[in-house]
Amino acid sequence: MTTLPEKRLAYVPKIPQALQHLLHVRCEADPSSPNVRPEIADLFPHLHTTPSYRIVSGAAAKKAPLKVGVVFSGGPASGGHNVLAGLFDALGQIHPASQLVGFVGGFSGLINNRCKALSLEQIDAVRNQGGFDLIGTGRTKLESMEDMQKAHAALHSFDALVVIGGDDSNTNGALLAEYLLSQGSKTAIIGVPKTIDGDLRSRDIELSFGFDSACKTYAELIGNICRDALSTRKYYHFIKLMGRSASHIAVECALLTQPNLTIIGEERKSLAQIVQDIADLIIRRKAVGKEFGVILVPEGLIEFMPEMGALTGELSRGVLPEKLCPKDRATWDLLPEKIQSQLRNSKDPHGNVRVSQISTEELLIQLVKKELVARNFQGSANFQEHFFGYEGRSCLPTNFDANYAYSLGVLGALAARDRVTGVICAIRSLKETPDQWIPVLSSLVPMIHLEERNGLKKPVIAKVLVDVKGAYFLSFSTHRNQWALEDNYRFPGPIQFFGDTALTDSCPRILELTSVYTPST
Ligand code: FBP
Questions:
Q1: Where are the domains of the chain?
Q2: Which tens digit of pLDDT belongs to each residue from 62-74?
Q3: Ligand 1 atom at minimum distance from 169 CA
Q4: What is the pLDDT of residues 143-194, one digit of tens each?
Q5: Engineering a disulfide at 109: which of 103, 227, 430, 438 sits with its beta carbon 3.0 to 4.6 angstroms away?
Q6: Residues 6+ apart with CB under 8 A from 147
Q7: CATH 3.40.630.10 fits 38-210+397-461, yes or no
Q8: Beta strand pairing status for 99-103 and 115-117?
Q9: Is 147 an annotated catalytic residue?
Q10: CB of 190 within 8 A of CB of 165?
Q11: CATH superfamily of 213-392+468-494+501-512
């Protein structure tokens, strides 16, 4: 019997027209490359003049065999294996004796030179499959000069290294590219935008791969819960959604499922205000005979609540709860014991509170219960909590992610052939059909700014948050009052791979509504 994953092995990803004949295209510097901030140019003396590149017709620069390394960094995102497949196939087209070598377990594999040459058989086994398991991933960063030197040594025989990662990993890629140039190395460093969070965006990067598959997985589950709520009419479901700081996943899932309330971190409401809003919703729904509902909560919410931000800031600086200032102490006293204990005990190696480990959904439920008692609420309000995160990071990629990730891999091979360093593969016009997609190699340095991390100013690629003045957010916020009381739930069902292309090849709503990211601030 053929299983779905087996059947998916045979899917042939669709790629942009411009990447279909690699031997007849080349990378050409784009004169309209964005500017670099002066303080950043000083930190990247060799790399800051690197332009972005577009792909134009022309004879290939080089036809010798290539040796290209590849590394996954950070959390899995569906489509990762297709980046490897795209790289592998394109390197083979460029020269049949080319090699693709995977560094195992993230940047730690690079530092410790743990790698494996990838074979056609291994690649064939993971085509259009979820996960990163062929070479694994990790969260190690290249932090010290020693790490850079070890990476340099590991890469001495390579033409290029492709770094598949999010904002921090691509920042690391840019720092490595700078270091290698300073050492006279010819190895190119090429990024690929990966993260389910949807927060790695720029003029050229409309979206990272993995976001679409993750959101469609969560939307299926949320839709199922909406239907259950509608059937049994007895629970308020609080669903926390992964996504780290930004609320992109929450907005996308809200548009796909239309729950009664979606809290958006970037609106920067206080904890007290959010609790009031939820209590209001429950009371208003009770008035129309409804004692159930579905509420989405983004993982990063706590970071945006002013009073929680102040409190976690103090705790991260090592202030003990009993020594907090009166305002922070009042917030602390409001919190249920379990949350207090999470705040005390979930710290990273720098002592910062790990806000992602805090059970925000449980915190809200406890405070809403108190609020309803205070308001003498006479109805019944029963709560269920859920957390959807890991479920969506390694699923079979949607056609969109399978096509997109494979195309990014092909583009990475082209960049390696033309030795373009310090760039990230990007594809524009993603809401069009894949043949019309426009591949570009976007310079990494203009994306970098200085940000305070653990008391020090560090160069990092800024995370792009939900723009609360943008079309994407407005298309959600204009409907939310209606969704609060009327149950306009949508039940998207599972990701589809066969049948009508409107079902199988749909692109994420974030692209339909903002095809090119333009901050409106
Ligand atoms: P990346 O940015 O590395 O892709 O990670 C995304 C993410 O899934 C976040 O949404 C989440 O907060 C985090 O990883 C969880 O990380 P971990 O796998 O270490 O628990």
A1: 38-210+397-461, 213-392+468-494+501-512
A2: 579 999 999 999 9
A3: 3
A4: 899 999 999 999 999 999 999 999 999 999 999 999 999 999 999 999 999 9
A5: 103
A6: 107, 111, 141
A7: no
A8: antiparallel
A9: no
A10: no
A11: Phosphofructokinase domain (3.40.50.460)
